[in-house]
Amino acid sequence: MVEEAPICEHFQRAAELIGKRWNPQVVRALQTGSARFGDLKHSVPNISDATLSDRLKELEAEGIVTRDVTPSTPVLIEYHLTDRGRDLTKVVEELAAWAERWSGAPQPA
Question: Of 37, 72, 98, 105, which is most buried by a Cβ count within 10 Å?
Answer without folding.
Answer: 37
